Amino acid sequence: MKLEKKLVSSGYWLFRWRSYFPIVIILFFIPAMGEYEYVGGSREMTTTWGLFCLIVGLLGLVFRILVVGHTPQNTSGRNTREQIAEVLNTSGWYSVVRHPLYLGNYTMGLGISLFPYSWWMPVIYTFAFALYYERIMIAEEDFLRIKFGDDFEKWSAETPGFFPDFSKWDSPLLNFSFKNILRREYSSLFALIFCFTAFDLVGNYLVVQKPYIVPMWNNLFWTTLAVYLILRTLKRHTQILDVKGR
């Protein structure tokens, strides 16, 4: 099998199982948390550092929100069984970068990887992300090339793959839909807060030898959990969050 075909084939396989990538990354957090200490020996400084890491992660989530808020139905989804694309997204954030959602994912994960305050953790995370998602992006572009032909070739030739070129900005075709965000991104917010809360709990236990969660993380966890359960219920059992064409 040619190398290019092998990369595409592995990319399709990784695309199907990409939801489990965070579980793989967690394995790297085990040794990082094993040497965990409070930043500067202070719980307060550690909380401040955690807040900075959260801001980094939220920047990634905000980027995802800006992308998803303008995308049409059956594009930029969470499908895992097969590639789906009713139209080729080339406007909005897709005019400055071909894979904006993965850029958002990377930034969210970067914030989490910074939390243990270990220099090598974000480095390992970055390399792992690059190796994993490069193949997924190759597979996705193979699918789009076959389906959209010259339109894809023209767009891909002009648009960077992962690092945005804001000089190429073209306004999105669809208006921003807040309902679409509520329907599709509530789980991302909860997952982000859950990770920080869990690592804070583990870190505090390793340092003081008893379970403890800093009030900031505790409050954020229960708040986002409530939001998650409400929006999940509305999505599954009502049509309140449905948006025509989204």
TrEMBL record:
One Pfam family named in its UniProt record: PEMT
Chief subcellular location: membrane
GO annotations of cellular component type: endomembrane system
Subcellular localization: Endomembrane system
Single Gene Ontology BP annotation: methylation
Membrane topology, record value: Multi-pass membrane protein
Family matches, as InterPro entries: Phopholipid_MeTrfase
Chain segments annotated as transmembrane: 20-39, 51-69, 114-133, 186-206, 212-231
Protein name: Lipid A Kdo2 1-phosphate O-methyltransferase
GO molecular function: methyltransferase activity
Record flagged with keyword Phosphoprotein: no
Alphabetic keyword roster: Membrane, Methyltransferase, Transferase, Transmembrane, Transmembrane helix
